[in-house]
Amino acid sequence: MEERFGPTLAAEHLAEEDGLGVHRETLRRWMLEDGLWGRARGKPREHRQRRARKEHFGELVQLDGSFHHWFERRGPRGCLMNMVDDATGVTHAWLGEAETTWAAVHVLRGWIANFGVPLALYTDWKNVYKVETTAKQELRGEAPLTQFGRMCAQLGITIMAAHSPQAKGRVERKNGVHQDRFIKKMRRKGIASYAAANAYLEEYLLALNQRFGRTPASPRNYHRATPSLAELHAAFRLETKRSISNDWVVRYHGRYLQLSPSSRRYAPRQGAVLVYESEDGKLEVHYRGEPIAHQEIAVPVRPENPRAAMHVPYSRPRYRHGPEHPYKRHADRQIKRQRLRQLKQAVAARAVAEACAAPDRAAGTAAPGSAPAPATDTPFAPQRTEKGDISNELI
């Protein structure tokens, strides 16, 4: 791959290798004139074309959460869930603590109550809305769905994920409008709680949509009719798959649900059931599409083991190997060899130290031209035995 030299680096090489002192700015102008250098750095940017607005109201609604100090110093930091129609710019919002599944459900239910069920949502790549497919799911041909994605699929809403903030620029710019206008208006009214802010949002959004809303290119409305409360309740709830234990108990996030016998159908042991949880924490257990009566029981408390709390010393005497055991047969011999090696190392180090110190002492005490004094035996010199081996009696 060919790499171009920039003006600065090219000027350095010209000065070091060719001895040509050319200023880097002069060289930059020459390279720009000859087309040898461009002002853009790195890889060329991918061409992006501005996307035109959708033509129908409800065809595409952008959804995003904006974290900000909405109450300034009067209250906690929150997240404004904001929905903006791509064709008209009509917006709907709900203020909560964080960008969670239930926060997205709140703002979507408000949109459905006001305008109907939209055709598609444009969101971020977040675990709340949409996740990427894993390798195992691709092999099985499964499409991963989050809890919010399953709720939207049940209502016939398609979720599309944007790969950049600029792709959903309408909702991003609307977040900036809210961070300016909505904060100032709440400051004038002294609003410092989520409940008061959401109550004021109805008045604020009505005036905002009347001023900044625009007429769509096509008069046809792509919103579908608002479902009934029962259908909305069946859609907006968490769904989790669980198995039945041998005593017909279903465990769900630390809660124990005892299934009751039914005259029509009784779920078998080790069977798979679906546990539905509403926002208020109410649970429902369904087996093959039919609800099963159940009652929540207390979490069983395991009896404490008294022997686990107390320390019982080991009363059995520990077995120790005898001197003739293979582990200890050569222990004394190894100890003697190790001590002998250490003694030899100490003697060698002592001899080297004496050899280095002898010329210095001889040069300092002897007269010029006189012979050096004979070396005396060191008290740590090894003793020789009859066999000529060094004895280990000093060990």
- Strand line-up across the major sheet: 3-2-1-4-5
Instruction: Say which CATH homologous superfamily of one domain is assigned.
Output: Ribonuclease H-like superfamily/Ribonuclease H
Name of the top-level CATH class of one domain: Alpha Beta
Please tell me how large the radius of gyration is: 42 Å
Question: Mean pLDDT, nearest integer?
Answer: 84
Q: How many angstroms separate the termini?
A: 71 Å
Question: Number of helix segments?
Answer: 10
Tell me the overall shape. Answer: flat
Helix content: 25-40%
Q: Tell me how many strands there are.
A: 12
CATH architectural type of one domain: 2-Layer Sandwich
User: Structural class per helix/strand content?
Assistant: alpha+beta
Tell me the CATH topology of one domain.
Answer: Nucleotidyltransferase, domain 5
H/E element sequence? HHEEEHEHHEHHHEEEEEEEHH
Folded structure, characterized:
This protein has 395 residues and is of the alpha+beta class. Among the domains are: 1-40, no CATH class; 61-230, Nucleotidyltransferase, domain 5 (2-Layer Sandwich), CATH 3.30.420.10; 237-297, no CATH class. Helices cover 35% and strands 16% of the residues. It contains ten helices and twelve strands. Strand 2 (78-85) and strand 3 (91-96) form a beta hairpin. The chain is flat. The two termini are 71 Å apart.
Describe the secondary-structure layout.
Layout (H helix, E strand, L loop, with lengths): L6 H12 L5 H11 L26 E8 L9 E8 L5 E6 L4 H14 L5 E4 L11 H6 L6 H8 L3 E4 L7 H21 L4 H19 L16 H7 L2 E6 L5 E4 L2 E5 L12 E6 L5 E5 L2 E3 L1 E4 L8 H4 L21 H35 L30
